[in-house]
Amino acid sequence: MTLTYLKKHTAYARIAMAxxxxxxxxxxxxxxxxxxxxxxxxxxxxxxGEAGLPASGDPRALVWYLAATxxxxxxxxxxxxxxxxxxxxxxxxxxxxHPASYVMAEFAAGLGATALRMxxxxxxxxxxxxxxxxxxxxxxxxxxxxxxxxxxAALLVALYLWIGLLAFWLQDVSPVFWVTQKLMFVFGGLMLxxxxxxxxxxxxxxxxxxxxxLFAPASIVLGTGLVRPVILARDLALWGGVMALVVxxxxxxxxxxxxxxxx
Amino acid sequence: MTRWVNTLRFARALVTTNLKAALALRGAFVMxxxxxxxxxxxxxVFWWVLMRRTPTLRGWRLADIQVLFxxxxxxxxxTVTLAGGVRYLGQAIEDGALDTLLTQPxxxxxxxxxxxxxxxxxxxxxxxxxxxxxSGQVSWRTAPAVALAxxxxxxxxxxxxxxFFSLAFWVGRVETAARQLWELLxxxxxxxxxxxxxxxxxxxxxxxxxxFVGYLPAxxxxxxxxxxxxxxxxxxxLYFTLAVLVFDAGLRRYASGSRFTTFG
Lengths: 263, 264
Known about the structure:
The structure holds 2 protein chains of 2 kinds.
Chain A lengths: L1 H21 L2 H26 L8 H17 L3 H11 L2 H5 L5 H32 L5 H27 L1 H4 L3 H14 L11 H7 L4 H4 L1 H8 L6 H28 L7
Chain B lengths: L1 H23 L1 H28 L8 H21 L6 H7 L3 H4 L5 H6 L6 H15 L8 H24 L1 H4 L3 H15 L8 H6 L6 H13 L3 H28 L11
């Protein structure tokens, strides 16, 4: 039963990977966007460094920090858009009859697309960060960061899945996505390490899953010792469990209340 | 002359119709606009945190960045409010959806641009104006300069959108690449100009004219002068004229999609 279940959903992941390989334009676009963002920020951090003010510590480390957070962010496909469209068009109704869980199938497809993107974007992240800074953090820190980045990206996929499911009630989930993205920006420490934010914001961030997705894994690259790998693994597992429960509960509520208008 | 007046009346009718359609779903309209305001203010937290620690970045202060951010947000918001169809231009060309517009007596580009309105654009315009006012760098006397800066930013932004999405006339499926190019334009527009040097700065005033979307309009708001204002207006009009020419050249290559569809 478990093996069949696993095989079935692995097939969704494989299909998503195959689709991703066929439609490379978005991936190339993300690679270019990533390189540009790192270029812009390396200029910004250089300017901050020139200002000679105690803003940030080492500007080179901050470029690597951004490379790490953006790698996680850009690797997770925005599956909420496809889910939203499926719900809007009513296609989701046909999927409910499939002998596979709709939620798990979408999650597996999201993980498949992530698996395809991560190597390309990882090379872009580390290649560009090195090109702009002429410096690398200790390789052991990078090696430790990679598995945490993969787990964080999977958690992000689950978050996008949940946002997509909200289309059962909201029709257009873009506003929820924008706000989540910005919360990730602020509470996740997408561009600036959380340690640079006012303490009230740091305290508020601790109650959200966003630091675990971005700030904590990326801090491993900085090698500041602020984050302990064991604690991070525990937090990722904890938030993963919470997310799984929330997604399942949301889906059950949606499926129970689903009214089919035509077909 | 009558033709121009008729075209303007048509443009006004498009905007009014779109607005009525958007307001028909009042809840969704308000929510999208409000969430965009929230979105823009959250993004600005980054600058607020950074500039608390580093008050001046190559001569730029927080107030200058507020003006830049405000002008770009308001300009972009105006574009997607009045010419929201620009984002769907590439898809329309690729799908042959311009067929229905070609049979209409009004300019195809104007019609295609005015077919849609993004409610979130109102949130952009609102937050843009708040950022500009909050900067403390404007007064009633500089209001015309602010209006010119936002209009020019919107014109340059729309011009770039038209050019990027019109590439579909030549290279086919270009939706993703064009959208990302447009996002790059906005990304560059939102950061202070002195961060970029050399060839990149030249590119930002030519190939990817972020200079006309953000930096130059922002400098008009901060230091209005006849020279600045005329340079901005000329640049924006030239870019828009170029965009119209590119679209017209592309339209001559346009192959019908032979679509049978209802319209209106």
